[in-house]
Amino acid sequence: MSSREIDVLVLGGAGVDTIVYVPELPLPFADSYMIRPGIETRAGQTGDFVALGVHTLGLRTHHLDMIGDDHEGELIRALHRDRGIAFTDVLQPGGTKRAVNLVDPEGRRLSLYDESRSQESDHLPEETVRALAGASRHAHVSITYPCAFALPALREAGVTLSTDLHNWDGVNPYHEPFAHAADVVFVSTTALADPERTMRRIVERGRAQVVVATAGADGAYLLADDEVTHIPAVTPPSPVVDSNGAGDAFAAGFLLGWLAGEEARRCALYGAVAGAHACTVPSTRAEVIGRDELLARVEKLQLSRSERSQ
């Protein structure tokens, strides 16, 4: 494999979701509910959507994860095959990771993850990790098991790293190896009592150059060069139907800018535009924004903001 032929190596986060649209969240107890527009199962969890996102934005992408020799695993293989995304899959004896997502009319989501699929003996082959890392410019590491074991090999390979800690509370020790190994860290503010304190602690204890705390409709907070900046939310181009995948889209958009050498605030704007687009796509569809559309929206947004400031 020739040197650095991959822009983004995505580790982990492959899985299958069953999408259930519910009348409200939390869902009141009842014997049964009649569901419309229906219940659908499709391939695509956090690693799949980051891989799809950066690939659609024009970055050379390779995805590595463990999946099962089962119907769900075939759905994931088909997603990558149909979209032209390189995928190296390692057998997961417990079967493919899966979840049920309950989605309310406002697009809010409650995810139920099946923890029974992973086993303590699960590991990504070190030689495979090293070979792919050696051919990559950057690696985005999902926090799904067993990706933490790959972090030392990735660092030794000299690639820059990013990770998404999702709804970390700032305390759970499981997330710390990811938070402290990555150069770019994404985290949701959902469970953080003090987002800025957590962001600064990530920088102090790890190697992060940039930390982004996404806050949904409130935008995001960017810590770069020891300064925290609020990144306003971007108005979605059409009605919000689902928040699923918005964080993955934000990460993909941010990485497009970061790998191109853009300054951090512009990278965050890329992420905000990509995340806003994701909120307009139903969970049942694996659709993400393309490079030309993202750049056009960014330029239009910047022009609009410039005109308002005059």
Structural overview:
The protein contains nine helices and 13 strands. The protein is α/β, with parallel strands linked by helices. The strands form two sheets. A nine-stranded mixed β-sheet has the order 5-4-1-8-9-10-11-12-13, with helices on both faces. The model has no long low-confidence stretch (mean pLDDT 94).
Please describe the structure with a list of short key phrases separated by commas or semicolons:
310 residues, alpha/beta, four-stranded mixed sheet, 13 strands, globular
**Total beta-strand segments:** 13
Q: Going across the biggest sheet, name each strand in turn.
A: 5-4-1-8-9-10-11-12-13
Q: Rg to the nearest angstrom?
A: 19 Å
- Spans where pLDDT lies below 50 across 5 or more residues: none
Helix content: 25-40%
H and E order: EEEHEHEEEHEHEHEHEEEHHH
Distance between the termini: 52 Å
Tally of helical segments: 9
Oligomer: single chain
Largest sheet, if any? 9 strands, mixed
Structural class of the secondary structure composition? alpha/beta
The gross shape turns out to be globular
Query: Overall pLDDT, averaged?
Result: 94
